[in-house]
Amino acid sequence: MSIMNPAGMNRQALQVARTHQNHLPGRTEPLQSRGEPADFRDALLRGLEDVNAHQKAHEELSVQAVVRPESVDAHDLTIAAAKANTSLSIAKNVVDRVIQAYRDITSLR
């Protein structure tokens, strides 16, 4: 099997196991479906809750890395930081677009 030849690859997903019980959860657990939001307000609030959850997870993992470095995998810490940064950037862009849309609407008068 050649790595460069995608035809030779089997299409099964790899099962990634948690190496330590304190590592970032979510590697092997299936995603929970939360249903569709009823309106834009609910979608926006749910998005902000997700951003907050990513920020808290990164903060808790960072504190744990300082207190007990052997219990935290560096990759998990990096992934948590990237998730927190990306979700915050997306939220900032959405807020900027909403504010710009509001300004555009108010200037139409």
UniProtKB/TrEMBL annotation:
<protein>
    <recommendedName>
        <fullName>Flagellar hook-basal body complex protein FliE</fullName>
    </recommendedName>
</protein>
<dbReference type="GO" id="GO:0071973">
    <property type="term" value="P:bacterial-type flagellum-dependent cell motility"/>
</dbReference>
<dbReference type="InterPro" id="IPR001624">
    <property type="entry name" value="FliE"/>
</dbReference>
<dbReference type="Pfam" id="PF02049">
    <property type="entry name" value="FliE"/>
</dbReference>
<feature type="region of interest" description="Disordered">
    <location>
        <begin position="1"/>
        <end position="37"/>
    </location>
</feature>
<dbReference type="GO" id="GO:0003774">
    <property type="term" value="F:cytoskeletal motor activity"/>
</dbReference>
<keyword id="KW-0975">Bacterial flagellum</keyword>
<dbReference type="GO" id="GO:0005198">
    <property type="term" value="F:structural molecule activity"/>
</dbReference>
<comment type="similarity">
    <text>Belongs to the FliE family.</text>
</comment>
<dbReference type="GO" id="GO:0009425">
    <property type="term" value="C:bacterial-type flagellum basal body"/>
</dbReference>
